Amino acid sequence: MSDAENFLRDLKAKTGEEMGLTQWYCYDQAAVSSHAATSGDDGPIHNDPDYCKANTPFGGTIVQGSLLLSTFTRMAKSLVWPEGEMVFRLSYGFNKVRIIQPVKTGQMFRARFRLKHSEPKGVKAALVTLDASFEAEGSQGAVLAAEWLVYLQFSS
What we know:
Elements: H1 3-12, E1 18-21, H2 29-39, H3 44-47, H4 49-55, H5 65-75, E2 86-99, E3 109-120, E4 125-136, E5 142-154
Antiparallel strand pairs: 1-3, 2-5, 3-4, 4-5
């Protein structure tokens, strides 16, 4: 059997299981402002604490949804995968994303990943669907939920 076939066999046995719970992360105002400068998402809800205190229920600025989504890539490094000679992995996109509650600038958050589905993608690759979510300190339940597709390429 190839690495990809062995990997998929082992992975299918984990369908429905949690594959990782990350450490806590936090974005400060400098990181939010830097992302605003590169993404163009520079509205006052992200960059003007005084405006937010006066005009929003958040009490301060909030992290951009696009910055949170990009954090999944960093956090996915903590996933526990079955054995296999993986050559590379890449984000294949999202089937669904819901931002349920904003993450406030300075608020601690972490990701939880659960295996939803896996299938072969050609002879040496797999397409994995993860239920990925963020939870934040001081918030009930998930603050962001996504169905994330990950492409995995193997040597054989």
